[in-house]
Specification:
The protein is an alpha/beta fold and 461 residues long. It has 3 domains: 3-127, Rossmann fold; 138-389, tm_1862 like domain (pyruvate-formate lyase- activating enzyme, Alpha-Beta Horseshoe); 395-448, OB fold (Dihydrolipoamide Acetyltransferase, E2P) (Beta Barrel), CATH 2.40.50. 35% of the residues lie in helices and 21% in strands. The chain has 14 helices and 19 strands. It has helices at 13-28, 52-71, 81-87, 90-94, 110-119, 137-144, 176-180, 188-200, 229-237, 257-265, 282-287, 294-307, 326-339, 366-389; strands at 3-9, 31-33, 42-47, 76-80, 100-102, 125-127, 158-162, 164-165, 184-185, 205-209, 244-248, 272-274, 312-319, 343-348, 395-404, 407-411, 417-421, 431-439, 444-448. Strands 2-1-3-4-5-6 form a 6-stranded parallel beta sheet, with helices on both faces. Strand 3, helix 2 (52-71) and strand 4 (76-80) form a beta-alpha-beta unit. Helix 10 packs parallel to helix 12. It is globular. The structure holds 5'-deoxyadenosine (5AD) and iron/sulfur cluster (SF4). The site of 5'-deoxyadenosine (5AD) has 12 residues, from strand 13.
């Protein structure tokens, strides 16, 4: 009889992609994915430990699952992802009802781990080794898809493609080098093959994924000759059928002129970039080990806007980093006023294990962090609303994400969410020209623009 697996994903797009791989892998072992944990034989939490709060969420959910396990002793509970990597056996000590702990580079082992549990060969399974390699055969097979994967033709029109894993930047606050390992670039040929495969299955939008995509190709030989991220981007953009191309995440330090020019040269590269700045104070950037200054960052923003005047920029900000004074924080507010990001993700600093800043003195009190976060977010909200208001009256190409009844939702090339009503049925992936009629701080509202006439709004893929 088929078994059911419920996977809950926390954190970033890396984890979302890993969850897809896990689902595909478990499908080969006879597991069917379900949306209801109550009907699952296996509950797997794919976890994030980027901030203390993210990790607490995982432990609190595991705590809640204790009763479920008592009620259904046959239920298996697994922890994957960054908390699994970071905590390892500690999870078994704190949560005795957990059966499996599998680290970020060991997910391909899940089927054998489950088999050992089921045969009674072992009572608990742990795999958290790091091999920092894309060359391991099972991993390659997974990244390429095995034919057993849920087909993207079932409505998936956009996909992530992993181009590298890990990170070598060692920002002083960041847990990622210890949870995801050293930076490793995936071979160009494998990436191109996966993109061709996806496009052949009906995928129209590709997002290239890595912790620090700008340093792609730097750490190890990935092709016959040297390859930069810009080279790779051009090659992916040239694949027929890639209608929209995006990438994430970029470190401002490694953003080359060559890469910025791609925004001017490649028609299908979406005019949108997430460029985390973290702070507007040079003193704090130095303590964060970011290796760029505010001035360099502003130069890069200016170059980007010269290459692509319509580019929508978003960023990440940490408030209350150890030693951050009111003056440092004001510098971050000033940077926001200068760049006027379309949107941002902002966080209160939290200490993470195995990071340098966890040992820094001058920790900022919680109430000051909360106050700064609130001030930053309300200024960002004002700016987002002003920027979004600037789109009113414009006709934008919207790729449909979902459609329920007549109410549709999609994204522009700039990654803005647009809600609109449509009298005809729409499928995910359809392109509709929409005139913007209303702006909110997080999304736009529009109506189909019949006069424009273009777009594939026929209701078919
Ligand atoms: N505390 C708070 N925020 C953090 N981030 C990363 N590490 C920490 C930390 N220790 C934020 C950064 C990063 C985003 C993914 O999470 O802004 O870009
Ligand atoms: Fe969270 Fe970072 Fe791990 Fe992604 S890589 S899941 S953001 S800790």
């Amino acid at each position: 009889m088929a078994k059911h697996v419920y996977i809950k994903t926390f954190g970033c797009q890396m984890n979302e992609r890993d969850s897809e791989i896990i689902e595909q892998l478990l499908a080969e072992s006879g597991y069917i994915g379900v949306d209801d944990p109550g009907s699952a034989d296996l509950i797997l939490l794919n976890t994030c430990s980027i901030r203390a709060k993210a990790e607490q969420k995982v432990y609190s959910m595991l705590g809640q699952l204790r009763d479920e396990k008592i009620a259904r002793p046959g239920l298996r509970i697994g922890v994957a992802g960054c908390v699994a990597q970071q905590e390892g056996e500690e999870i078994f000590r704190r949560m005795r009802h957990v059966d499996i702990v599998v680290g970020t580079q060991q997910i391909y082992r899940l089927p054998e781990m489950l088999a050992r549990l089921e045969s009674g060969e072992s009572g608990r399974e742990l795999a958290v080794d790091m091999h920092n390699d894309f060359a391991i055969p099972p991993f390659q097979k997974l990244l390429h898809g095995t034919g057993a994967a849920p087909s993207p033709a079932g409505g998936e029109y956009k996909k992530f493609v992993t181009i590298m894993q890990g990170c070598n930047n060692y920002c002083s606050y960041c847990v990622v080098p210890s949870t995801r390992g050293r930076e490793v670039s995936r071979p160009v040929a494998d990436i191109l093959e996966e993109v061709r495969l996806l496009v052949g299955q009906g995928v129209r939008e590709i997002t290239l994924l890595g912790q620090n995509v700008n340093s792609y190709g730097r750490t190890n030989p990935v092709a016959a000759g040297p390859v930069t991220f810009a080279d790779l981007l051009r090659q992916v953009a040239a694949i027929p059928g890639v209608e929209r191309l995006r990438f994430t995440t970029s470190n401002p330090r490694d953003l080359s002129e060559e890469l910025m020019r791609c925004f001017a040269e490649l028609d299908n590269l979406c005019p949108q970039l997430h460029l985390p700045v973290q702070s507007g104070s040079n003193a704090i950037l130095a303590r964060m080990n970011r290796k760029y200054t505010v001035e360099t960052y502003l130069d890069r923003v200016a170059s980007l806007r010269r290459c692509q005047p319509d580019i929508a920029l978003t960023t990440d900000i940490i408030v209350g980093f150890p030693g951050e004074t009111e003056q440092d924080f004001e510098a971050t507010m000033e940077l926001l006023r200068t760049v006027r990001f379309h949107g941002s993700f902002s966080f209160k600093y939290s200490d993470r294990p195995n990071t340098r800043s966890a040992d820094f003195a001058d920790k900022v009190p919680e109430e000051i962090k909360s106050d700064r976060l609130q001030r930053f977010q309300s200024l960002q909200d004002e700016i987002s609303l002003e920027r979004n208001t600037g789109y009113i009256g414009k006709i934008l190409d919207v790729m449909v994400e979902s459609c329920s009844g007549q109410e549709a939702k999609g994204r522009t090339t700039t990654n803005h969410i647009v809600h609109f009503r449509s009298s005809r049925p729409l499928q995910p992936g359809d392109l509709v020209a929409v005139r913007v009629i209303h702006a909110g701080k997080h999304s736009l509202r529009g109506e189909p623009a019949p006069a424009a006439g273009q777009g594939n709004c026929s209701g078919k893929r």
